[in-house]
Task: structure prediction
Amino acid sequence: MAVSSCSTFKNTLPSPVINRNSYCSGMRKTHLRSLCFFSSTSLRSFTYRRKHLQFNGFTAWSSQPTFHNESPDQELAVLLEIEGVLMDAHRMGNRQSFNVAFQKLGLDCANWTEPIYSDLVRKSGGDEERMLALFFNKIGWPTSLPSNEKDAFIKRVLKEKKIALDDFVLSKTSPLRPGVEEFIDDAHYAGIPVVVLTAYSKSGDKIARSVVQKLGDERFSRIKIVGEEEMEQTSAEKQRIAEEVASMLKLSVDLDTSSTESLQKVVVTLRAGAEYAEVPLCNCVLVAGSQTGVVAAERIGMPCVVLRSSLTARAEFPSAKAVMDGFGGADLSVSKLKQKRWS
Result:
């Protein structure tokens, strides 16, 4: 079998979309926890004693952080996703990871050049199972493969591809997105807490933390991480506090369980991120690279800015406050986050 050539797809990014509405005004920190956990205004004055927690290389304290240049009326926190935000692994390593998978499975006839890969992405809408089906339908399936095992074959290829992509992410050669290090530095000097969310990373919490380590020891010490352990602790504490307040006020506790398991995990992680930043939900800005993050942020009233990546170049994000192509320059910067007030 020979690999057929495919036409080159020219990927053009849409112009950034800016929603200039303004979100809720700054709130006093005494209202923080009630805002994060409850929607009822009658509960806003409730506070509780936080414990000193130690998790995998960073510490959360009960005391309020000291910001360099910010007053309480200007408090802001930034929450960063991993995929598409800290790193665009698909842009740098996805095509090569498919080729590694083909080699491991003995598919010498399959080798995706950049034009072939781009054409498949365009025709499939980025659906990787469909990309493989389109490719092998065109060049021919392995002769030893029964026709009723095509789906299983595709899953084997994708499994090997994920292993190869994870290896690429862990390697020293995999780069962070341009400008993200300067963005984190600017946030630090502006007194803005930065929280990196690894709990719902598609690559898993362990690999996501290794991406964060690429920021270097100094930056790593300045940020907070919300992974699986931190999320579970905050989620358990949220349930306990909700039951305690409901008992005091004779209210019934009804935490939202209508979401899918995946979306609910993202929602809880975002709430945990706001809690560790010690900033109200409406003053936290999620910098997202995934549609799930955008939906979860909208559900809990957290403003969201999307950074387009190779996976979301053509996606629409109607509920995002802004859609940008990267960090710095005409795109996302700390100064822009401080100047914008969306509703």
Remarks:
- Confidence is low (pLDDT under 50) at residues 1-73, 248-259.
- The longest strand covers residues 284-288.
